[in-house]
Amino acid sequence: MSGLDVERIRKDFPVLSRELPGGRPLIYLDSGNSSQKPVQVIEAMREHLTMHYSNVGRAHHALGAESTEAYEDARDKVAAFVGAPSRDEVIFTKNASEAINLVAYAFGNPLNTDERFRLAPGDEIVITEMEHHSNIVPWQFAAQRSGATLRWFGVTDEGRLDLSNLDELVNERTKIVAFAHQSNVLGTVNSISPILARARQVGALVLLDSSQAVPHKKVDVAELGVDFIAFTGHKMVGPSGIGVLWGKSELLNAMPPFLGGGEMIEAVWMDHSTYAPLPHKFEAGTPPIVEAVGLGAAVDYLSEIGMPEIKAWEQHLTGYALEALQEISGLQVIGPRTLVARGGTVSFTLKTSGGMDIHPHDVGQVLDDVFGIAVRVGHHCARPLHLRFGIPATTRASLYLYNTTDEIDALVRGLRHVQKVFE
């Protein structure tokens, strides 16, 4: 177990002390959807907005200099947090979805003459059946624009990627393999090395959707060895409206701009333009300035606590939750049921003692109304994965550094109550 002082950490998050109507204490088990924010992040954003705010990279006055410095300082913090060799490889976006779209836009774009990004009929894109829609739909767009073929890895009954056809699926026609670092539904932490090794053999690029990984463990892009990772601020105690694309500078330099406008240009004529160097080539217009400052504060907060300590605490919580939930008759965990290569996201279905299915929407409603327990219900922006398991939806409890075993016990009591309600 980690040595985290969880009670002290909880005091940093004002909302966790809130009572809901009827005197119900809030039990927040939905951090995989969006995490709560510590006062350190809230205050950093408030301070910048009230005392230092100005547009960045444009104004030649004191506020402009302070705001630009704070914005770029946040980039430095993010680069260090993920082990980026260069700060210029960190591109600020509005979320992970935009970061993935940015890369997908480069493929088959007529402005891009680099062979690595050529996409035409006969070429292939490979994803997986467990992806968030954010890592499915952009590649569907790319395939539709170019005539390329979209292919995917299946998922085993245990919630792992089925790599049995790896060599057939990732082949000489493959241009990019894009897959989740950690599943937002199953909690599965995917094995990167075999897919990366095969991609390198055939000359394909590799993108990781690390939205569910970066908030929960140490992620080092140099150690990963992939070409791109995407993640988002709001899942890592930072604000919404800010995301990150990290990419190797050689590849980013070869890619055309995603959006056109102010700040991403070097010079503009009426008939053509030249573009600013990295990272600004991909940051058109006024960026999310205060949100970047908040993300920098979130990085400071997580770094001070320590990502190894956060991971260890979440592993303890996850083991406790898996054991407790699987003692509920009629509850089925969808995904890995051990701690091997899995994170703190636990999705499940629930039946009554008589075997009647209880819809996840009903589960979530009763948990919230009676116990103040916030979970997510539905297909969690991963409908193909639910179709694979033959279920319309699941209930998902997702754990983070501020959760406790007492809250898991409350969830178990709440689920038993739900079963009684629908008997």
UniProtKB/TrEMBL annotation:
Q: Which Gene3D superfamilies match?
A: Aspartate Aminotransferase, domain 1, Type I PLP-dependent aspartate aminotransferase-like (Major domain)
Q: Which keywords appear in this protein's UniProt record, sorted alphabetically? A: Pyridoxal phosphate, Transferase
Instruction: Reply yes or no: does the keyword Transferase apply.
Output: yes
According to its UniProt record, which cofactors does this protein need?
pyridoxal 5'-phosphate
Q: Which residues form the Aminotransferase class V domain?
A: 27-411
Catalytic reactions on record: (sulfur carrier)-H + L-cysteine = (sulfur carrier)-SH + L-alanine
- Its EC number is 2.8.1.7
Q: Name one Pfam family in it.
A: Aminotran_5
UniProt GO molecular function = cysteine desulfurase activity; pyridoxal phosphate binding
Quote the InterPro entries the UniProt record gives.
Answer: Aminotrans_V_dom (IPR000192), Aminotrans_V_PyrdxlP_BS (IPR020578), Cys_dSase_SufS (IPR010970), PyrdxlP-dep_Trfase (IPR015424), PyrdxlP-dep_Trfase_major (IPR015421), PyrdxlP-dep_Trfase_small (IPR015422)
Report the superkingdom from the record: Bacteria
Q: Which GO terms describe its biological process?
A: cysteine metabolic process
The similarity comment for this entry is: Belongs to the class-V pyridoxal-phosphate-dependent aminotransferase family. Csd subfamily.
User: NCBIfam families in the record, alphabetically?
Assistant: sufS (TIGR01979)
Function field: Catalyzes the removal of elemental sulfur and selenium atoms from L-cysteine, L-cystine, L-selenocysteine, and L-selenocystine to produce L-alanine.
Protein name, entry field:
Cysteine desulfurase
UniProt source species = Acrocarpospora corrugata
